[in-house]
Amino acid sequence: MLAELPSAGVEETDAAVERARAAYPAWRAVTPGDRAMLLHRLADRLDEQLEQLAVLEARNCGKPIADARAEMGMVRDTFRYYAGAPERLLGDTIPVAGGVDMTFREPLGVVGLITPWNFPLTIAAWKMAPALAAGNTLVLKPAELTPLTALEFERIALEAGIPAGVVNVVSGPGRVCGQRLVEHPDVAKVAFTGSTEVGRGIAEAAASTIKRVTLELGGKSANLVFADADLDAAAAAAPIAVFGNAGQDCCARSRILVERPALDSFMAGLERAVTAVRVGDPLDERTEMGPLISAGQRESVGSYVGDGAPVAIRGHAPAGPGFWFPPTVLAPVSNADRAARDEIFGPVACVIPFEDEADAVRIANDTIYGLSGSIWTRDGARALRVARALETGVISINSNTSVRVSTPFGGFKQSGIGRELGPHALESYSELKNVFYAVEGV
Ligand code: NAP
Ligand code: MG
After folding, report:
1. Which of 248, 347, 361, 421 is most buried by a 10 A CB count?
2. 275 Cβ contact partners less than 8 Å away, ≥ 6 residues apart
C-alpha cells in the first residue's frame, strides 16, 4: 500500500471554503509585486523538490517516471509563467463623453478546483497558478484515486510563504466534496477537468448560484495524415499521441485518419512504432507506457477491443499484477463505430481511411468533442485551410503536441467551456469591472 488517507466530507469541505474566505481579503491586498515574488518563490521550491514530486506522482498514478519528471517541470513553469501576471493584469481606458472610463480585472474570491487522476498536479497547477495570480484564494479537490501530490503541494505552498488559507486541499469523493464546492454559495467559480458526463452535472448544479464555470472535458481527437506528408515522421509520432499516459489523456489523438493512397505505407510504419513502445515498470527510466489507473478502467477499455473493428496491431504488455493493457490499433474503422465515437481513455487507436481533404474534415468534425488534433502534410496552404476548418480548440501541424504553458488550451463543442494556460486563462479567474469617472472637459 502506498498511503492511507482520511476521506473528507461536506463538513471538511465547508471548513476549507471558510479558511479560503477568511484568507481572501489579505491575499487580495498583497501588492502585485509581492504576489509575483511569492509565486516565483513557489516555483523555486517546486524546482528544488521536483525529483521527489516526480517520484510521488509516478507512484500516485503509475505513470512513467520520465513523464512525471517532465510534468513536474511543467508545474514549476506554470507558476513561473503566472508569476509574471499580477503586474500585467492590464485594463483599458475607453473614450467616452463627460469623463474617464476605465476597466479593472478584479479577483472573484474563493474558487473551487476539481481535477482528475490522469495528470494530477499538472492540471491542478493550470488552475491554481492563474487563480492565485489574479488574487483569488482556492480550494482544490483532487481525484480520490490520486490525491498525494496535491496534498504535498499544499505543504510546499506554505513553505514558500503563501499565507495559510490561500491554498486548501480537500481530499474526498467527488460526489460529496466536489458537489459541495459546486453548490457552496461562497465559492465564486468552479474550474473542472474530467469526464463530459460529470461536467454536464456541474454545469447544471452551478446554475442555482450563477457560479462561473470552466470545464475541460473529454476528447476524441483526430490525427489527419495526408498522402503528401512525411509518412515516416507521422507514423513514428502517432503512438505517443495515443499511448502516452497509457491513453488516459483528453488530448489523445485516438482517431488516426489516413488518406487512402498512403494507408499501406503508413500502417507499416505505425506497426514498427507501436510494437517498439516500451510498456513496463513506471519507475524504470526507459519506460514509455505504464499500466492503467484501475481495474474498472481496464475493463472499460477492453470492451472496445473485439467489438467490431479488426485488431490490426497489438504491442506488448507485461503479465502479472497491475492493470496492464497493450497498445492496440484497430483498422480499418468506420467513424460510426463505437470505438470511433467514445472517448476510450486507454491505449486503443482507430485508423480511419479518408478519400480527400473535404472527407477528412467531415470525418474529423463528426464527433461531439473538439479538444485537440494534428495535421500531417507538406502543403502549407492545406495545413492552414484544414486547421481553420476543424472544430477543435488546439491543432498542431506536423507535430502531435497540444499543451504549452504560454498558449491557450481548451475545447470546442462538448469538450468544454473556457481556456486554460496562456494569457487568456486569467480572464476566467477575474471579473471585468468598468469604472466611469465624471470629469468635465475631457
Ligand atoms: P470524473 O468522474 O469526471 O472525475 C473528475 C473529477 O471530478 C474527480 O476529482 C472526481 O472526484 C470529481 N467528481 C466526480 N463526480 C463529481 C460530482 N458529482 N461533482 C463534482 N465533482 C465530481 O472522471 P473519472 O471518473 O476520473 O474518469 C472517467 C472518465 O472521464 C474517463 O474514462 C475519461 O473518459 C474522462 N476523463 C477525462 C479527463 C480529461 O482530462 N478531460 C480526465 C479524467 C477523466 P473523484 O474521482 O474523487 O470521485
Ligand atoms: Mg468518476
Report:
1. 347
2. 313, 315, 316
Task: Map grid coordinates 489579505 to a residue.
Answer: 26
Q: Is 216 known to be catalytic?
A: yes
Cα 39 to chain center, whole Å?
21
pLDDT band, very low/low/confident/very high, at 441 (cuts 50, 70, 90) = confident
Query: Cell match 490499433: residue?
Result: 329
- Name which residue sits closest to atom 18 of ligand 1, judged by CA: 175
Residues belonging to the chain = 442
Angle at 147 between CA 299 and CA 412, to 5 degrees: 65
CB 126 within 8 A of CB 79: no
Cβ of 416 below 6 Å from ligand 1: no
Confidence check: pLDDT of 320 > 90: no
**What is the Å distance from ligand 1's center to 404 Cα?**
23
Of 63, 195, 421, the residue with max ligand 1 atoms within 8 A of its CB, to mutate for a pocket test, comes to 195
pLDDT at 307 over 90: no
Residue identified by cell 494507408 is 263
Closest ligand 1 atom to the C-alpha of 216?
41
Atom of ligand 1 nearest to the CA of 249: 40
pLDDT on residue 271: 98
CATH of domain 10-217+411-437: 3.40.605.10
- Pair 94, 102: CB distance under 8 Å: yes
CATH annotation of 222-397:
3.40.309.10
Whether 390 and 413 have beta carbons less than 8 Å apart is answered as: no
Nearest to 60 by CA among 68, 51, 48: 68
Domain ranges of the chain: 10-217+411-437, 222-397
Count of beta carbons in the 10 Å neighbourhood of residue 17: 23
The residues that bridge with 140 in the sheet, in sequence order, are 113, 169
